[in-house]
């Protein structure tokens, strides 16, 4: 699929590391002009240099910054064709009865408010462009609930609902909206979740990984960020031109 995004302008929020970095790098290889966005200026700049992208610092949970991200992209690069709403946090690992509501509110602010703000301010630019593709990062936990993860699960269920609703709103403008639902993706974020679960549940990280993740997957392994990036490329490209309002699992067949 080399060159399949030639001439396209793509924004990847949360693009400084992990899945976002992998998606941004894959889009660059596919010919797109890519903007990585996030709150950590230094990390963004390093990532952009490494993969051949452009960096714009923005806290997408703040409406003014989300709007500025879109207007600056259009001003510098001519338009917006693809938006990947990847910015997010894992949220508290806790039982509902022990929930820190400040952590809950922060999880909702970044994972849900930030996503809808980016959609709100990107859609008018995409409409003027004649269409586009919006890819919202949900999760396997956006399809089923998991213990100790009610905050994250709630936000990722919300992402699915937003995806289905907005797809109906903007379909007549040739804008497609889909959700990616990765399973357990290898990397820094997942390692933090495992460590938190181990502390909260009194089990070893190795037991949690084996029992709760790899042994529950048909392929008996983690997902790599690059595998998620290939799915994102499919949803961004003309190869998925007739697909909207849908969710795509990338989870190694996890039960």
In short:
This protein is α/β, with parallel strands linked by helices. It has helices spanning 18-29, 41-51, 63-77, 101-129, 150-170, 188-201, 205-213, 225-236, and strands at 9-13, 33-38, 54-57, 82-85, 132-137, 175-182, 247-250. The chain has one domain (9-184, 224-250): NAD(P)-binding Rossmann-like Domain (Rossmann fold, 3-Layer(aba) Sandwich).
Tell me about this structure.
It is a single chain. The protein has one domain (9-184, 224-250): NAD(P)-binding Rossmann-like Domain (Rossmann fold), CATH 3.40.50.720. The chain has helices spanning 18-29, 41-51, 63-77, 101-129, 150-170, 188-201, 205-213, 225-236, and strands spanning 9-13, 33-38, 54-57, 82-85, 132-137, 175-182, 247-250. β2, α2 (41-51) and β3 (54-57) form a beta-alpha-beta unit. The protein is globular. The two termini are 30 Å apart. It is α/β, with parallel strands linked by helices.
List the helices and strands and how they pair.
Elements: E1 9-13, H1 18-29, E2 33-38, H2 41-51, E3 54-57, H3 63-77, E4 82-85, H4 101-129, E5 132-137, H5 150-170, E6 175-182, H6 188-201, H7 205-213, H8 225-236, E7 247-250
Helix pairs in contact: 1-8, 3-4, 4-5
- Indicate how many domains the architecture comprises: 1
The value of Rg in angstroms is: 17 Å
SSE pattern, N- to C-terminal:
EHEHEHEHEHEHHHE
The low-confidence runs, each spanning 5 or more residues with pLDDT under 50, are: none
Instruction: Give the overall form.
Output: globular
Average pLDDT metric? 95
The protein's oligomeric status is single chain
């Amino acid at each position: 699929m080399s060159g399949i995004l030639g001439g396209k302008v793509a924004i990847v929020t949360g693009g400084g590391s992990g899945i976002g970095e992998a998606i941004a790098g894959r889009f660059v290889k596919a010919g797109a002009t890519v903007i990585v966005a996030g709150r950590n200026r230094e990390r963004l700049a390093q990532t952009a240099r490494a993969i051949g992208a452009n960096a714009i610092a923005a806290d997408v949970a703040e409406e003014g910054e989300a709007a500025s991200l879109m207007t600056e992209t259009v001003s510098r690069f001519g338009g917006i064709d693809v938006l990947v709403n990847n910015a997010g946090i894992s949220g508290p690992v806790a039982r509902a009865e022990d929930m820190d509501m400040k952590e809950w509110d922060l999880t909702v602010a970044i994972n849900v408010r930030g996503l809808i703000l980016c959609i709100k301010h990107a859609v008018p630019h995409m409409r003027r462009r004649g269409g586009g593709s919006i890819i919202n990062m949900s999760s396997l936990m956006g399809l089923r609930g998991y213990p100790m993860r009610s905050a994250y699960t709630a936000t990722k269920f919300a992402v699915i609902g937003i995806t289905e609703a907005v797809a109906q709103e903007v379909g007549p403008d040739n804008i497609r909206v889909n959700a990616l639902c990765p399973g357990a993706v290898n990397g820094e974020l997942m390692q933090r979740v495992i460590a938190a679960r181990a502390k909260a549940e009194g089990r070893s990280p190795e037991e949690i990984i084996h029992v709760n993740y790899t042994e529950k997957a048909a392929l008996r392994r983690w997902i790599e960020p690059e595998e998620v990036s290939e799915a994102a490329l499919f949803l961004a490209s003309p190869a998925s031109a007739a697909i909207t309002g849908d969710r795509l699992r990338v989870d190694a067949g996890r039960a």
